[in-house]
What we know:
Layout: E1 15-16, E2 36-43, E3 46-61, H1 66-70, H2 76-89, E4 97-102, E5 116-118, H3 156-169, E6 173-175
Antiparallel strand pairs: 1-4, 2-3, 3-4, 5-6
Amino acid sequence: MPQNTDPFVFGDQxxxxxxxxxxRAKKVHSLAPGSVIVFGSVLRxxxxxxxxxxxAEALSHTRSNWRAVxxxxxxxxxxxxxxxxxxxxRPSNDRRFTLYLGATPERxxxxxxxxxxxxxxxxxxxxxPSVDAVPGLPAANRQAISxxxxxxxxxxxxxxxxxxETVLAQGLALGTRIELPKPA
Length: 184
């Protein structure tokens, strides 16, 4: 069975459209530009960060219309590794998903951009950074969708800065453009 790549962190812009976007998770389908999505998991009782996506744009799509709605906005590799397998698994033509296009350093939202914690090539593997000291990222979350409605819109950029500083303080960098792997 094919596996998807979501969030997709390769190329010029991070993309997210599938993971945890269930019909019951209605809020995840209507995030505004400037919203921050932190992907991660709990490891040794700490919340560790994999990817941070700052929403720049959102496009609603279904199995029956995704090609017309999003195909010109995404690299063909994203269509092949995420959209096509995703819709092959889904029988319903009317189930809605939202494609989120991430903010970039060149086109940030209130100074925020999408990133992955990383280390320079050749420096070896690294532990994913623990970020649960940042308010709103508790280790108790356990890979569930959580909305921090208590964080006001004016506080979002400050929380993003705390998150970025926490990653940098652990000796890592903020990766913003990852080249697509070359075909074998």
